[in-house]
Design brief:
The protein is 64% helix and 0% strand. The relative contact order is 0.12. It has one domain (29-171). The model is unreliable at 1-14 (pLDDT under 50). The chain has 172 residues and is mainly α.
Length: 172
């Protein structure tokens, strides 16, 4: 080592730390991209599906909610959604879209991730609760995928980081 710089095989670039440090810095980026793109797709898919946004009929949110009502962990939550199935469908779709955009851009990332976790939790407790074994339902793993982003946010390649860096420059 010379003047505090590592020169061994583990250095990814001069003064930049070893590869483990760099891998750790970028570790959440693939998860953020996957969840962001997936939730944007899910929201757009619902908004563009003419059958989904209806109270009744094949493929409608109303029929889906009536189907899962008795097997859900919280039937009262399903009953609430059934008061206005189309309204609930739009709320979920727009929520997924907002969460996906926020996550992908890294804007209010922790809040977006919390929204994603809550959407996934509500879908797990209602729509996929009856999956047997439980790991066949996809909403539970999605819920846990959001937790690292709730805790860490988006420290790199994000609007949150850009805003934070600009604020720091103004202070100094």
């Amino acid at each position: 080592m010379t003047h505090g710089m590592r020169t061994d095989a583990y250095t990814s670039h001069p003064g930049g730390g070893d590869w483990r440090e760099n891998a750790t810095r970028y570790a959440l980026l693939p998860l953020r991209i996957f969840l962001g793109v997936t939730f944007i797709y899910a929201g757009l898919d619902k908004l563009t599906d003419s059958a989904f946004m209806k109270d009744t009929g094949a493929g409608s949110v109303g029929d889906m909610m009536r189907t899962v009502r008795d097997s859900s962990a919280i039937p009262s939550l399903v009953d609430l959604a059934l008061k206005s199935p189309a309204g609930f469908g739009y709320a979920i779709a727009l929520g997924e879209l907002a969460v996906g955009i926020g996550t992908l851009l890294g804007l209010l990332t922790r809040l977006a991730a919390l929204g994603g976790a809550l959407i996934s939790l509500s879908l797990w407790l209602t729509v996929s609760w009856a999956s047997d074994p439980y790991y066949y339902g996809n909403d539970l793993p999605y819920m846990f995928c959001w937790v690292p982003l709730v805790l860490a946010g988006a420290p790199l390649w994000s609007l949150d980081a850009l805003i934070r860096n600009r604020r720091r420059r103004r202070v100094y």
